[in-house]
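A favour, since you know our structure tokens better than I do. It will help me judge whether the discrete encoding reads sensibly. The space below this message is yours for that.
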Amino acid sequence: MPKTDRLLPESAHDNGQRGTALILALFLITVLTVLGTMVLNTSIVEIKMAQNQKISSQVFYAAEAGLERGLLMLIKDFENDSGAASPWGNANYAGWAETVTESSGTGSVTFDPDVRSLDMYLGSSDANLKRLTLGGGQTVNGLTFDMYVYKLGANEAYVMSRGSGNGGMAAVEYHLKVDDLSPYNNAIFTGSGIAGQFEGSVNVSGSVYSRGTLEVGANVSFANNYTTGHHPLAPGDDLYDMLPAVTDLNTKLRVKGGDLNVASASASIGFAGTNNSVAGVFVDGATNIDSVGTHYYEELQSEVPDVPMPNILDGMRNEFGQSFINGCIASQGYAGNNAAIATSLYADWVSGQGCWSASSSVGMVINASDFGNIIDGSTGSFSYDDGAGNGLFFDDATDTLVLKGNVVIVGNLDIGEANGNDDIRYEVYGDSSGGFSQADGGTLYVSGDLSIRGNFSPDPSKGYLKGATGVDDINSLGIVTPGDITFSGKPGNYYAGFFYAEGQVNFNKQAALAGTVIGGLVNFAQVPDVYQVPKLKDYLPKAMPGGHNVMRLTQREWRRVY
């Protein structure tokens, strides 16, 4: 039988190919489905990540907004708060437009500044750590921020802001340090330089700011405390017993718009030993320091902060606000130079006239000619009283001058005998809403020139310059004049207080002064010793020119907590 080949039906062959195609199609569909699912999941994850990033950015910017608000609050507070324990030592937040309420935690952990993050201590019972509640609200685009502050002192603080909302949270923090460049944070501040040389066994314990060249001659020392320098103080000295127990005055020499010339090897800028170096020397002109002498300072820089000489009208503007004072000058028609306008303002203020009501009297106006323009042992006792206790009182038996409230003296005034033998003691009681407290201090405004001859200081046994908390421990006297102040006693005389002269401050004898002198020009015809009293800056009497804080931000360290 012939052999024949048997072929499969065509349909059977097609079925095999179709089966393979079906499997391949199913495989491809499965792969595409998996890939699609992966793409979808990735998209969903990316959308969620984008949403989370958006939320993270939103709460971060809310936290940043709160942090910047806190920074502005602290800056305003620093610039405007010049009272005791200021500016960051209280809860005042001066100059800020909304109310700020502080509340403390109830935990038991004490804040550790070295850790840097406030977040670990939000429940701390540390009295310096506060949560802040702002009267103007704490929301940004529907998100909220919480604010916390930790005050390490009057010039250093941490502030943290924590933003939250939409399920997200972020926290940012500043570590802030500032310097107060107020003219009263110096032993000497001069608006036009210092005439003549510092020369002849001079000692300045504290900072100097000179707007003009500073010439330093032989036997001059700038010290960082009271116990070093050419004329160190010791227990038993009258000035030592009045001064606070300060071991570090943070002494800085600043020369703006001039040169520092230290021409002698016997001059000393700082001394060896702990707390004996001065903090810094800052000169924007030439610095010529004798290479033979030995000097101790922590830094030397050419950048000098610009601190203007206080205008005599600044005292009233700082006390009552610039717009009020400018409006008062316009409404009362005050005319003439600054000296004449300032005299009118001070006179109306103390007596409750002009822009002030009679019920707001905080002192009185006295003509110096009424007691012969001089207060000394031969003047005879007098009493000028406005009926409310304000006034000026002198007891010739004890040579004690008592200032109650604030007094304007019209004319020139001499205090002490021409030979410098008088020891005039003063007591100051500031007006305090109808009562009088030594803690308030008082301002004596002299419309002419003032000459102080002989000792003029508070009773050293009462420690009036120490700035302590007791009533008898604070007795700050501020003297203001548009003219000149001359210390014309004799060697061994000493003076104490705040002294501002828009004209010139003259030292005509070798005397010692505790406090601060501010002068358009400072003239050392015969050289003094000057000892800065940093505590008194917290108890500056009313309406003193230059009493405002002058802020310089020295550290602004930012970090994101989470």
Notes: Residues 468-473 have pLDDT under 50 and may be disordered. The radius of gyration is 35 Å. The longest helix spans residues 10-80. Residues 296 and 473 are 34 Å apart (CA to CA).
